[in-house]
Design a protein that fits this description.
By secondary structure, this protein is of the alpha+beta class. The protein folds into 2 domains: 2-160, 60s Ribosomal Protein L30, Chain: A, CATH 3.30.1330.130; 174-203, no CATH class. It contains 7 helices and 9 strands; from the N terminus they run αααβαβββααβββββα. It has helices spanning 2-5, 13-22, 27-43, 63-71, 116-127, 133-149, 200-203, and strands at residues 53-57, 80-82, 89-94, 99-104, 157-160, 174-176, 183-185, 190-191, 197-198. The chain has a 5-stranded mixed beta sheet, with helices on one face. Strand 8 (190-191) and strand 9 (197-198) form a beta hairpin. The longest helix is centred in the first third of the chain and has 17 residues, at 27-43. The radius of gyration is 21 Å and the shape is globular. The chain starts with a helix and ends with a helix.
Length: 204
């Protein structure tokens, strides 16, 4: 974890695990980390071994990786659902308690750490596309450190929501596509007029 060794502030051990999975520390990852921690507290969650916890993410940003690590959600298990709205919003569900909270950012980020002048200078360089890689990295570190120091309510709004629990991930047998021969989930196949069943790519 080369990036972590160069950081001049103490990182929580569970955040280090998120960095290890994601590959680097960045503000996006911190957003997901903060949401996961808040959801754990509000919903009394343990890391999901199967589909006990469900996350509905309204974006595909770096934040999702922290939610995967801390909450045990993944597309493979079917308990990480994407809605590509481009919104910094996440709904976390506890199946056993039938409760859910939606966390959303509804205001611009404002840096108010110790290095305001430096952050403003770096922000301007990034906006004008003149920042070096070192400056971009420094900007990320300052923002990540600042986010970790803020109260959660300064960053995200939290709302308990009524939501229909999503169904468990479907299981279905595979069968060979009548055209390409590749094994395909039977419920995802297209039935032709002649009764043959083919995969979606072969149907287009």
């Amino acid at each position: 974890m080369k990036n972590v060794e160069n950081i001049k502030f103490k990182l929580p051990e569970d955040l280090k695990k998120c960095i290890e999975f994601h590959g680097h520390l960045c503000p996006g990852l911190v957003y997901g980390y903060l949401v996961a921690k808040e959801a754990i507290n509000l919903l009394n969650l343990k890391r999901s071994k199967d589909e006990e916890v469900v996350v509905i993410s309204e974006n595909d940003s770096c934040a999702v990786d922290a939610l995967q690590v801390l909450l045990g959600t993944s597309t493979g298990k079917g308990n990480l659902i994407f809605k590509d709205y481009g919104k910094n919003a996440y709904t976390v569900l506890n199946r056993s308690r039938k409760k859910a909270f939606r966390f959303s950012r509804n205001k611009y980020y404002l840096y108010d750490g110790e290095s305001r002048e430096e952050f403003s200078r770096l922000d301007e360089a990034i906006s004008s596309n003149t920042a070096s890689q070192k400056e971009k990295w420094r900007h990320k570190m300052l923002k990540a450190k600042d986010l970790l120091s803020k109260p959660f309510s300064d960053i995200f709004s939290t709302k308990e929501v009524d939501i229909v629990m999503p169904p468990y991930a479907p299981l279905a047998r595979s069968e060979a596509c009548a055209k390409c021969g590749e094994m395909t989930m039977s419920t995802k196949m297209v039935c032709l007029k002649n009764g043959k069943r083919i995969c979606i790519p072969c149907s287009t």
